[in-house]
Amino acid sequence: MCCEVYPNKNKTITNKITLPKFNSHLNFSDGFSKRCRNSLSYLPRFSSTASNSTLIFVCFCILQITAPSVGRKNVTLICVPVIAESVEKMKIDMHKAKAEGVDLVELRLDSLNTFNPFQDINILIRHRLLPLLFTYRPKWEGGMYDGDENKRLDALRIAMELGADYIDVELKVAPQFYDSIRGKTYNQTRVIVSSHNFELTPSTEDLGNLVARIQATGADIVKIATTAVDIADVARMFQITVHSQVPLIGIVMGDRGLISRVLCAKFGGYLTFGTLESGVVSAPGQPSLKDLLHLYNFRALAPDTKVYGLIGKPVSQSKSPTLLNEAFKSVGFNGVYIILLVDDIANFLRTYSSTDFMGFSVTLPHKETAVKLCDEVDPVAKSIGAVNCIIRRPTDGKLIGYNTDYVGAISAIEDGLRGNHNGSSTTVSPLAGKLFVVIGAGGAGKAVAYGAKEKGARVVIANRTYDRARELADAIGGEALPLADLDNFHSEDGMILANTSSIGMIPKVDETPISKHALKHYSIVFDAVYTPKMTRLLKEAEEAGVTIVTGFEMFIGQAYGQFENFTGLPAPKKLFRQIMKDY
């Protein structure tokens, strides 16, 4: 593995010297060139007695360590944090990490129940299968160690003496640590100096100053981890990463910071962290290794990879990344699709306005607001009053809004009804003349109500807030009903029911918008919720003998249109169904 080459042999901690400028001929237009530039300009400090041949050898080694291996389009490393109570468990997890194809392993010494520094570190290094990063994180920096500081720093010095590939030292104690090793020679250890902010992400200027402070300590690699209060905070970390002249690990913690952990491969970050098991994290918001490698296709991300994503709140339950990333990969489309936990869609679109970010799906609660934020809106979406797909036009950067929800939902309901009518091939919609009850008056409710009305149905809107139901009903020429009255509404039999609200969605799977006894008056029940696939509403409708249509059908249908808008290619419909068959 290329990252097992150690570029800093015989490193001695002395005064910093100026190295020759080997990088003047490099093209900085891609991530590989940038990494070469960073590495050559900011090598670990060498003894002033280092020969020219040593420097040439070092540069050659760095070119090896930074060149992407076959099949990789970026040089960003994947590191697995190992948090275990015993050295034996750490050894087991190192084997697992090796089998998964990661680049290095972070061993969290502060997680060990008992710890004999020399003995345990020696064992771990002797069983090294991958480059090892030793971290001994104190409680005051978010870790678990709560003992004597001198003993903690002694353990990191021991790791260096025994040949650790990397150690992590906190900025607060970095000057003290460097003073303690000055004049000593270590064979191959690169020092990461780290700073963690568990409250917020500072301004771009403050982040830049922080990079300079960390670099001034003598760090080989700068690590900054901040916290995302809003997803727009991550843009500042991307800006710092792209312009950094030193190897930089820039992480923004929390669910809103997920994109920092994935897109660092696009923007030139030194490494990212992925966990062996979902939920077993060393910092908030870490993705699993499986998601990095297989869901987001991390190794294939490149500086020219276009970013797409799902804007919403919540978004963690969505299957869209699974569907669209697999589809992108299958057709060779250079894009990545990621969930985007967005509180303020206007601020998000204003912040991520470059052509790196080319398109977005939009879900609750932003579909209606999105209409106002697009530069142009498709006539159908404008009539509906909701947008679920935004494309950035490459020629001028303008945002174009579309709605693909109504096609997916209406087609699925029509297919369900045609099934009831023995596959009738009539060109007249089976919705024509039917009483069609829509639960919800948000973006999805508007799309379904619009689609039903276009097909000739008589539409009734039921919503928790009656005024919202009345407003939508007036817009499409329908009737309005408070949701609380729905159980007693049965003006005729054979009605159609479509739930477009989030009632019944994970995690509130025990909720339903209508009582089971009232379902007997409907011929078909559709639920736009698809996580879980079988909601309580659908289960009870099926038990009542009513035909059901799952939200899966709407999800697949609307995804066809989104894929075509994103890529300009025909949607691989069979592949979509194959991908989603297990959900």
TrEMBL record:
<dbReference type="Pfam" id="PF08501">
    <property type="entry name" value="Shikimate_dh_N"/>
</dbReference>
<dbReference type="Pfam" id="PF01488">
    <property type="entry name" value="Shikimate_DH"/>
</dbReference>
<dbReference type="Pfam" id="PF01487">
    <property type="entry name" value="DHquinase_I"/>
</dbReference>
<feature type="domain" description="Shikimate dehydrogenase substrate binding N-terminal">
    <location>
        <begin position="310"/>
        <end position="390"/>
    </location>
</feature>
<dbReference type="InterPro" id="IPR022893">
    <property type="entry name" value="Shikimate_DH_fam"/>
</dbReference>
<dbReference type="Pfam" id="PF18317">
    <property type="entry name" value="SDH_C"/>
</dbReference>
<dbReference type="InterPro" id="IPR013708">
    <property type="entry name" value="Shikimate_DH-bd_N"/>
</dbReference>
<dbReference type="InterPro" id="IPR013785">
    <property type="entry name" value="Aldolase_TIM"/>
</dbReference>
<protein>
    <submittedName>
        <fullName>Bifunctional 3-dehydroquinate dehydratase/shikimate dehydrogenase, chloroplastic isoform X2</fullName>
    </submittedName>
</protein>
<dbReference type="GO" id="GO:0019632">
    <property type="term" value="P:shikimate metabolic process"/>
</dbReference>
<feature type="domain" description="Quinate/shikimate 5-dehydrogenase/glutamyl-tRNA reductase">
    <location>
        <begin position="429"/>
        <end position="517"/>
    </location>
</feature>
<dbReference type="InterPro" id="IPR046346">
    <property type="entry name" value="Aminoacid_DH-like_N_sf"/>
</dbReference>
<dbReference type="GO" id="GO:0003855">
    <property type="term" value="F:3-dehydroquinate dehydratase activity"/>
</dbReference>
<dbReference type="GO" id="GO:0009423">
    <property type="term" value="P:chorismate biosynthetic process"/>
</dbReference>
<dbReference type="InterPro" id="IPR001381">
    <property type="entry name" value="DHquinase_I"/>
</dbReference>
<dbReference type="GO" id="GO:0004764">
    <property type="term" value="F:shikimate 3-dehydrogenase (NADP+) activity"/>
</dbReference>
<dbReference type="InterPro" id="IPR006151">
    <property type="entry name" value="Shikm_DH/Glu-tRNA_Rdtase"/>
</dbReference>
<dbReference type="InterPro" id="IPR036291">
    <property type="entry name" value="NAD(P)-bd_dom_sf"/>
</dbReference>
<dbReference type="InterPro" id="IPR041121">
    <property type="entry name" value="SDH_C"/>
</dbReference>
<feature type="domain" description="SDH C-terminal">
    <location>
        <begin position="551"/>
        <end position="580"/>
    </location>
</feature>
